[in-house]
Amino acid sequence: MPEHWPPNGHTEPKEYNRSERAVLVLGLILTGLFGFTTFQPIAAGSEAYVNLWFDFAAGIGLSILPALVAGVAIVFVGLAVLLYGIVTPVHEGIHYGVASYLNLNPDFGFDEMWRVKNPRVVALSTGIPVWKNMLMLITPFVAIGLVSAGVLLVANGLVAGVAGVVLWVNSAASAQDVYHYLRLLRMDPKAKFANFERDGEIRTEYVVPER
Q1: How many CA atoms lie within 13 A of 28 on its CB side?
Q2: 3-class secondary structure for 106-137?
Q3: What's the gap between Cα 58 and its chain centre?
Q4: Contact 143, 125 (CB under 8 A)
Q5: Residues 187-205: what's their mean pLDDT?
Q6: What is the pLDDT of residue 45?
Q7: How far apart are CA 170 and CA 155, in angstroms?
Q8: Domain locations in the chain?
Q9: How many whole angstroms from its chain centre is CA 38?
């Protein structure tokens, strides 16, 4: 049991677990919602990329087939770099920065869901109030979403397409964050949380004030 946990005047700790089914359903909803809203800029960006690439390929003397293969390869490599080299580190970095600002002792690691290990930041602390938990959880979804939406408002073509992809993927990938945020909205606002490591795994518990 962590030091100073549970706090005086609170109930016995209860384990806080997520519903992977609920996260999956929410992920599908976010994927569909933001996929629909970003379809037009992504389609326009794709068209702009195809035109730019084939003009460039023709200028350097590439025939259709090599140009097509190279163009597809560039798309896959570019998306991998964008999503795993930029968006994911920025997303987790925002979690980490907010947790640090709130003095929540953030720790970077990996969380397994559906047998896939995903990067995550967890606040290894006790007595965490609900509002700090919610702020840490939702900030990357909101911040990256607002920046991407802002770019969509002022840009077009390839740049808007990239912004649309970022908005779509970051929103869908935030399903777990949004799930926890919505769940916390329904909990006692005076509840307190603790995250600590036990047997190599992160355990989350919560307490509420005694009545």
Answers
A1: 5
A2: EEEEEEEECCEEEEEEEECCCCEEHHHHHHHH
A3: 39
A4: no
A5: 90
A6: 97
A7: 19
A8: 14-207
A9: 17
